[in-house]
Each structure stands twice: as structure tokens, then as C-alpha cells.
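C-alpha cells for chain A. Residues wanted.
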């Protein structure tokens, strides 16, 4: 099966979106859409706005003829035109196209809360028709988490970082050993991924625990120094403690990266600077990276193996 994904991202997040798509779909998007044979929940990523499961493709006439010859029958269906940036159609043409396609389908039409939502669109002269799903933006429920922290990651970045960590393998074991109030833990838990959380500071760790509890997630978070974290994980996600660039601070950062190497095969390192030397000294190799900006704050997301 082939899927058409419609992307939505702003300029500040475009690199993060591309890194996430490279990790999850092995595609480096250059436009606001892409085709893939890989089926993903459209709400997993912030950036996949719509997903069209392509049932039929060709000219509009071919599609209508095929719908009619197959006698496609659905009760309570609706057909929507899927806008693709760069291929905008006039709204009159869109109405005409959805009307013709809808008319060819047998069964009852349902405008509000349809049982089956279909999409039709045109890219480079080829029409695509199929089942359409839309992003529910489920992560917004984490906007009102009870515990906040000045250095916490924005929810959007945490969501994308989790997807960058998991990539195309949802069975990975994850750890956030410097979890703060658990922004990453919340997104990973919401997406159903396995993750453990640790933080050295008791009140911060309690904030994470209460945030997880508030949403009914069963993810475990313990007070621990990363140096005491045991076990082995596929991937560690670390939003490194930063602030002061004193000698001690840099030594602490090196110690944290070294410990990430000890407890995980792979590290997604988030920092306000590129930490190439620390990554290499710990025995990791930087394999991919991006930067993301919010207001004037730049973060680097580094994939290390
Ligand atoms: C930048 S904050 C992480 C914020 C987190 N991503 C969030 O969204 O809330 C870094 C965290 O590392 C923790 N930390 C510092 N040194 C640590 C250590 N040695 N072991 C475990 N956690 C540590 C701090 O308590 C702090 O909560």
C-alpha cells in the first residue's frame, strides 16, 4: 500500500521535521508532502497533518470509472479535497471534483462525523484517492500539566525528539536519565513507547511523577544520579543540564555523555551547543543532527551511536 503524507511545519522547526522524517520514514522531505509505503499513525508526529491511504491513482476519469466498476459502497461517507502546498486548486474545482467522486461511491453520504472519510487530490497531473486520516493533535492535552520547570523542553520539541529517538522501531527501550519534570516521558508514554525516567533532584523527579500520574501514565520515574542508573537501553534521550560554562559544568556534561554511552547503544543529545568533542570522547559517533529555534533559544538535537 502507498500512503501520501501531508506535512505542516514552520521555518524554525523545518530541520527538526526533516530529521524526524529521515529517522521514521527514511525520507528527507523537500516539499510539504511525501509518499511512503510505511504506514504510521498520523498523530504520532506533530508534522504529519494528513495521511491518504492511496487506493486509486490516475486521471480523475480513471478513478471515477474504477469506483463505479468496483461498486465501492460505504454507508455514511464523505469525500474531501486534500490541499497540497504548491498544487492548490480553485475552490470551485475542488467542489466539482469531490462531488463527482462522491457521486460515484454507493451508499449514504454523511457531512458531519462521517463513518468513512475519503480524500482526493492532484499532484503533477495525477489524482490520488483513498481513505483519509487527520492528525488529532493529541499532545495538546499536555499543555496543562500541573508541574512546570523553567528549563523544560517545549512540548513540540519533546514530541519530535521522542520520534527521532524511536525512528522506525517502536519496540525500542528508551531512557531519559535527566528527565526534569518529564516532558519527554509524557510524550513517549502518550505514544505508547517504553521509557524509564531518572533525575538527580528529588523535587524535580516528583514533578515528573505527578505529571505522569495526572495523565494516568504508568511510566516509572526514580530519583537517581545518572552514574547510578543500571541496566541497558537501546536509546537514551538527554536534554543536557546547561547554563554556566564553567570548567566544572563542562566536566559534568562530559560525565553525563560518558554515562549515556555506558547505559545505551544510541543517544539523542539535546543541548544549546554542538557537543562534538564530548560525543567523540565518550566513544559515540555523531550520525545525524539538526537545530531548532523557539523565540531566540536555539537547541541542537544530535543523534549519536
Ligand atoms: C535541562 S534539564 C531537563 C529538562 C527536561 N527535559 C524537561 O523537559 O523537564 C536537566 C536535568 O538534569 C538533571 N540532572 C543534572 N545532573 C544530573 C545527574 N548527574 N543525574 C541525573 N540527572 C541530572 C537536573 O536535575 C535537570 O532536571
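Reply:
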Amino acid at each position: 500500500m502507498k500512503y501520501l503524507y501531508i506535512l505542516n511545519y514552520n521555518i524554525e522547526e523545518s530541520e527538526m521535521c526533516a530529521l524526524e522524517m529521515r529517522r521514521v520514514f527514511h525520507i528527507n522531505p523537500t516539499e510539504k508532502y511525501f509518499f511512503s509505503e510505511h504506514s504510521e499513525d498520523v498523530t504520532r508526529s506533530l508534522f504529519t497533518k494528513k495521511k491518504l491511504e492511496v487506493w486509486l491513482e490516475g486521471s480523475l476519469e480513471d478513478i471515477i470509472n474504477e469506483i463505479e466498476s468496483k461498486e465501492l459502497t460505504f454507508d455514511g461517507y464523505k469525500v474531501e479535497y486534500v490541499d497540497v502546498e504548491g498544487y492548490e486548486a480553485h475552490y470551485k474545482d475542488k467542489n466539482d471534483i469531490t462531488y463527482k467522486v462522491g457521486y460515484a461511491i454507493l451508499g449514504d453520504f454523511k457531512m458531519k462525523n462521517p463513518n468513512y472519510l475519503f480524500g482526493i487530490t492532484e499532484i503533477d497531473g495525477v489524482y490520488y484517492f483513498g481513505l483519509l486520516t487527520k492528525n488529532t493533535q493529541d499532545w495538546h492535552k499536555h499543555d496543562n500539566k500541573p508541574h512546570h520547570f523553567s528549563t523544560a523542553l517545549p512540548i513540540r520539541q519533546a514530541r519530535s525528539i521522542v520520534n527521532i529517538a524511536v525512528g522506525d522501531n517502536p519496540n525500542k527501550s528508551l531512557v531519559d536519565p535527566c528527565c526534569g519534570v518529564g516532558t519527554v516521558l509524557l510524550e513517549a508514554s502518550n505514544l505508547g513507547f517504553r521509557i524509564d525516567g531518572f533525575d538527580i533532584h528529588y523535587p524535580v523527579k516528583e514533578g515528573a511523577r505527578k505529571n505522569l500520574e495526572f495523565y494516568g501514565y504508568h511510566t516509572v520515574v526514580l530519583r537517581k544520579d545518572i552514574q547510578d542508573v543500571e541496566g541497558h537501553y537501546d536509546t537514551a534521550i538527554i536534554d543536557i543540564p546547561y547554563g554556566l560554562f564553567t570548567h566544572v559544568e563542562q566536566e559534568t556534561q562530559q560525565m553525563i555523555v560518558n554515562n549515556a554511552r555506558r547505559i545505551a547503544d544510541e543517544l539523542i543529545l539535546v543541548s544549546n551547543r554542538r557537543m562534538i568533542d564530548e560525543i567523540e570522547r565518550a566513544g559515540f559517533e555523531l550520525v545525524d543532527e539538526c537545530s531548532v529555534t523557539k523565540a531566540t533559544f536555539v537547541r541542537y538535537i544530535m543523534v549519536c551511536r
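Residues 247-263 form the longest helix (17 residues). The mean pLDDT is 96.
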